[in-house]
Amino acid sequence: MLTKIITEGTTRVEVPVPDETSSFPPSSAAVFYNPAMRMNRDIAVAAIACFSRNNPDYTYLDALSASGIRGLRIANEIGLNTTMSDWEETSFELIRRNIELNSLTNCTAIKRNANVVMLDNSFDIIDLDPFGTPAPFLDAACFSTKRLLCVTATDTAPLCGAHKKAGIRNYAAVPLKTEYYPEMGVRILMGAVARTLTKYDKAMMPLLSYASAHYVRIFSAMKKGIKEADGCLESMGFVLHCFNCGARDWKYGLAAHIKEECPVCGHKTSLAGPLWLGGLHDKDFCGEVSGEIEKRGFKEAQKLILTCRDEIDIPLHYDYHKICKALGLTAMPTDELIVALRKRGFRASRTHFSGISFKTDAGMEEISKTVLELAKKYKQQD
Questions:
Q1: Do residue 223 and residue 329 come from a single domain?
Q2: How far is Cα 250 from Cα 314, in angstroms, rounded to an integer?
Q3: Tens digits of residue pLDDT in 21-75
Q4: Nearest Cα to Cα of residue 348 among 313, 378, 324, 375
C-alpha cells in the first residue's frame, strides 16, 4: 500500500494513496480515507471542543478509525484521551504509526471489532463514522456512550427514500423520496438513534444535526433516566405527504391516529416514519461551535453552522422553485419570500438543507398565496 503524509487541521497523518483506476470514494482500498470528509472532521473538532471545554478528562472513542485521522485530530487538537479502534490489521498498524508521527501519549490503538469494544467499555464521547450505514453499530454505541454520541451515515439513498426497502431494514422506519429528502434522512437517522437510546433509559438531546453533500451527521447529548427516555419518545412521530399538491403534515406519537386524506386537495397521502419530529439543533451550542470554527480557521464550515443556528424549529422544509413551477411562475429571491411570510405573521427562515429552500409554519395554501402576491408585486414593478 502506497502512502503519503498530509496535514489536516494541525495534525499530520499518513494516509493511503488511492489507485488512479479506483472509484471514489475508495471504499475498496486497504485503508479507507476520504479527503472529501474534511469539513465533517473540522466540525467534529469544533463541536467536541465546545462540548468538552470544561471537562478535559472526557474519554473519546473513534469506533471505526481506518487511518485514524478523526481520532488523531481529537487527541492532537483538543487533547482528549482517545481510543481508536479498527479490526483490520493494515488499519491498526497505520493508526499506530500515526500516533507516533504526532508524538501523542493520550491515544490508544485497539485491533478489535467496534461492537465488542463498545460493549466491553464505556466512553464519554463515541463517534461512529462508518462507510455506509451506522445501523449495525447503533445498539452498542447507545449502550456504551455516557455523554455525547456523534453519528455519520453515508447511506443517503436508503435514508432519503430512494432505496425504500433498505431504509426500512436499516432504520425500522419508512422513508419517502420527497423534495425535502435531506431532512427526511436526518430525521429518520435521529429517530433510529432516539429509539435505540431509550432502550437503555437514555434520552436524546440534539445539539447539531445536518445533511451535507453525500452524508447525514448528528451530534446528540443525552440524559439518563426512565422519565427522560419516555419524554424523548414524545418527539417521535410520522409525516404525511401529499404527492399531488405538496402539502405535508406530521403527527406526534408512535401510536398516532393517522388520516390518509390530504386536507388541502383530498388525495391520499403517503406515510413516512417513525422519525424524529423534535428540534434538530441547540441554538446556543451552534453559536459556540461557530465561534470555535472561526477561532480555528475552518472557513468552509462556518456558513453551514450559522444557517443551522438560525433555522426555525419546524419539521420539513419547502422547495421554493418547485412551488413556483407548480404555480407557473419564475422564482423570486428566496429572502423576499421569507420577509413576505413574516409580514403575514408566520415564522420563516432559510435552511441549510438547500439554497433554494425555506422553513415556515405556514401551510401550503398560505405559502401559495404569498408567492402569488409576491409575483403580482414584481409584475407591477415591471
A1: no
A2: 11
A3: 555 555 555 567 888 999 999 999 999 999 999 999 999 999 999 999 999 999 9
A4: 313
Answer whether 124's CB lies under 8 Å from 148's CB. Answer: yes
What's the CATH number where 218 sits?
A: 3.40.50.150
Q: Domain ends where: 283, 303, 326?
A: 283
- Give the DSSP letter of residue 332: P
Q: What confidence tens digit (pLDDT) does each residue in 256-276 have?
A: 777 788 988 999 999 999 999
How far is residue 180 from each of residues 12, 52, 175, 366, measured CA to CA in Å? Answer: 38, 33, 11, 19
Range of the domain at 124: 3-232+278-283
Q: Is residue 247 part of a domain?
A: no
Q: What are the cell numbers at 84?
A: 481508536
Backbone angles phi and psi of 282, in degrees to 5: -100, 115
Tell me the C-alpha distance between 297 and 324, whole Å.
38
Residue at grid coordinates 408567492? 371
In a domain, residue 143? The reply is: yes
Query: Could you give the CA distance from residue 288 to residue 293 in angstroms, rounded to a whole number?
Result: 9
Pairwise CA distance, residues 89 & 13, whole Å: 18
Q: Is residue 260 part of a domain?
A: no
Q: Collapsing DSSP states into helix, strand and coil, what is residue 125? A: strand
Express as a percent the part of the chain with pLDDT over 70. Answer: 96
Cα 295 from Cα 292, distance rounded (Å):
5
Strand locations in 17-80, DSSP E? 59-62
In a domain, 166, yes or no: yes
Nine-digit cell string for 11? 495534525
Amino acid at 9: G
> What is the phi/psi pair of residue 258, to 5°?
-110, 125
Instruction: Give the contacts of 304 (CB within 8 A, at least 6 positions apart).
Output: 39, 43, 210, 212, 352
Q: CB pairs under 8 A, 24+ apart, for 121-125?
A: 121/61, 121/83, 122/146, 123/59, 123/60, 123/61, 123/83, 124/52, 124/55, 124/58, 124/59, 124/60, 124/148, 125/48, 125/51, 125/52, 125/58, 125/59, 125/60, 125/61, 125/80, 125/149, 125/150
* Residue 368, domain CATH: 3.30.56.70
341 and 222 both lie in a single domain:
no
Count other C-beta atoms under 10 Å from residue 234's C-beta: 12
The DSSP bridge partners found for residue 152 are 217
